[in-house]
Amino acid sequence: MLQFKEGNQNAFRKLFTRYKKNIVNFCYRFCADRELAEDLAQEVFLRVFKAAPRYRPDARFSTWIFKIATNVCLNEMRKKRYRFKRESLDIPVNTDTGEIPREIEDRVQPQPQDLLVSRERERFIREAISDLPGKQRAAILLRVVHGFSYQEIGKQIRHSEKSVKSLIYRGRQHLRQALEAKVRGE
Amino acid sequence: MGTKCHYKTLLSLFMDGELPEKDSIKVNEHLKTCTACRKEIESLQATDRLLTGMKEIEPSVRFERSFWHKIADIEEKKRAWSLSNFFLFGWRPYLATGLMTFLIAAFLIFHGRPSPAPGPEEIVIAQHLELLTNLDIINHLDLLENWEAVKTLKEDS
Q1: I need a labelling partner for B134 at 20 to 30 A (CA). Which of A58, B25, B73, B118 fits?
Q2: Best residue in B6, B10, B52, B63 for a mutation probing chain A (most A CBs within 10 Å)
Q3: Helix (H) and strand (E) counts for chain B?
Q4: Domain limits at B131?
Q5: ipTM, two decimals
């Protein structure tokens, strides 16, 4: 990053190549939507690109880029929540062929036969992650999947280490409850 | 023991290696004897494995292509901005400096040229300027010197 800051354009390409998969997957696990995940990951790299002149190596580069990714994902989540708030469950959906009653997927009780299918299993895990509150979700992903320390996660989500401990503890408890059927099935 | 074991709250930290060494040893020892905590930690570890075992996706071609297009746009805008910046603001300081230099030079040449220092004679003249107002008297100082003779001539005539 420092090389890129000094004007080496190639250094940014290297950073992009090195982190693109991790960032796309972090966003994908966070929002459970592939297309959106790629858009969010693009936003992350654009922010990195624009922030280069102000970059100061206070921490590992990976800590910094995942901090940006967490912010981007949490912002998107807030936007979505706002959109969902405005959506009425009673109003029928308008389609080209007219109005149809709104169908809401039952995410709490997946059918047992679905769980046997690997893709469905993935979906079930993604949904369990999506059901976590934003900061718990970020903390769990940063710790369990990407292996950051509690101190680093504190910097990334702007919380104290004590608060990170609590977020991860509660996040694990929630996930365990949601995935207990899966855990038993292993 | 079961659900009330106070070690349960430490298991998450223990798994993550975030406990001080002393406490970590205690939890390790505890796990040898507490079945409930062993089950709890196994369950938490299995949950973690589900998360880490999720299939990773490869960024699509669209992702990369679209991203580099955006970067190219930013670079293009930057170039256009610096060029327009030069035309908008870049030449103005130079023009202003040139204009100021020209005006100062013109002023010095036509109005403000400093006069040479006055000579000793000029200083004496300046000190006796009031005498110049009575220049007639000064011109006829010789008459004043012979005032008695002049006076006699006047009386005779």
Answers
A1: B118
A2: B63
A3: 10, 0
A4: 120-156
A5: 0.74
